[in-house]
Amino acid sequence: MNPQALMDGLITGSMIGLGAIGTTLTYSILRFANFAHGEFIAWGAYFALAVSGALGYLSGGLLLPIGPFSFGWSLPIATVVAVGLTAGLALLADALLFGPLRARRSASIILVMASFGAALSLRSFLEFVFTSQPAYFTKSLQIAMRLGGGLRATPDQLLSLAVAAVLVACVHLLLTRTAIGRSMRAVSENPQLSGVVGIDVRGVVRTVWMLGAGLACVAGVMAGLLVQIRPQMGLDLMLPLFAAAILGGIGSVPGAMIAGLIVGFAEAFAVQLVGAEWRAAVAFVILVAILLLRPQGLFGRAE
């Protein structure tokens, strides 16, 4: 077994885990599987690409590269802006589509089908605006560094892992140590009772949309930086996201990240053992196995 598969799985799993956090929070609080979440990943990457390109053009090349990384200061700045834009897109989708459906007390299956429609619309519009051609944040080539034990990684890959770890820790602290986090957990347990005791349920819903979309944006930027940017990138990650969210346990942030790593490792080893063409099937097998053997996931509670 090639030990480099461990590093590949770690990198892939960190991207899946970040996206899965938004998926699991949306499901635990809004009570439906949002299949448009993957499109926030793609839109976040393209928002960052557009803003980074604009900053590079306006600065006239003054935003210099950062140390050993393949990008300059325009990308971190663009990522912050893109997080805000992606959060705004999620709020817009909720205001125009999901909010009215919730107000009518529509069944969960209606919300799920609406998310399918939203995903198709967002993906098609993204392809119309940016075309289907792959794009890149940078064309610079990096030499992978030796880490020991046969492992190699580029500075961009190591930075992505560090950013993912910091974000997961921050979200966990947000949910466990802050007032909004306690409100989110209360709404997750009982939305009606939470409203009765004075919790701003609408504010919690808005926070969940913004938080999930922001993390999806960062995952999209990571994927774009380490691989490439395509309108279909959110669709490709959708099944692994749901596999990780269910495997980790609905509502568990650490569980989503750990499950994302498990799915990432499984995909990486599948590439080594049976070939890259079977990579997508791994997440499906994991998803079916968890639904059959432990529906509440690794860190979830049985209903």
Describe the structure.
The protein has 303 residues and is mainly α. The chain has one domain: ABC transporter involved in vitamin B12 uptake, BtuC, CATH 1.10.3470. The protein is 73% helix and 2% strand. The chain has helices spanning 4-30, 37-59, 74-103, 108-130, 155-177, 179-189, 191-196, 201-226, 233-248, 253-273, 279-293, and strands spanning 145-148, 151-153. The chain has a two-stranded antiparallel sheet with strand order 1-2. Helix 1 (4-30) crosses helix 10 (253-273), helix 2 runs parallel beside helix 4 and helix 5 crosses helix 6 (179-189). The model has no long low-confidence stretch (mean pLDDT 86).
Helix content: over 70%
Pairing-aware structural class of the strands and helices? mainly alpha
Q: For the residues shown, what is the average pLDDT?
A: 86
Strand composition percent: under 5%
Q: How many helices does DSSP assign?
A: 11
Shape: globular
Number of strands: 2
- Please identify the top-level CATH class: Mainly Alpha
The Cα radius of gyration reads 19 Å
CATH topology: ABC transporter involved in vitamin B12 uptake, BtuC
Stretches where pLDDT falls below 50 for ≥5 residues? Answer: none
Number of domains: 1
Strand sequence of the main sheet, in spatial order?
1-2
Distance between the termini: 40 Å
SSE map:
Elements (H helix, E strand, L loop, with lengths): L3 H27 L6 H23 L14 H30 L4 H23 L14 E4 L2 E3 L1 H23 L1 H11 L1 H6 L4 H26 L6 H16 L4 H21 L5 H15 L10
Antiparallel strand pairs: 1-2
Helix pairs in contact: 1-5, 1-8, 1-9, 1-10, 2-3, 2-4, 2-8, 2-9, 3-4, 3-8, 5-6, 5-8, 6-8, 9-10, 9-11, 10-11
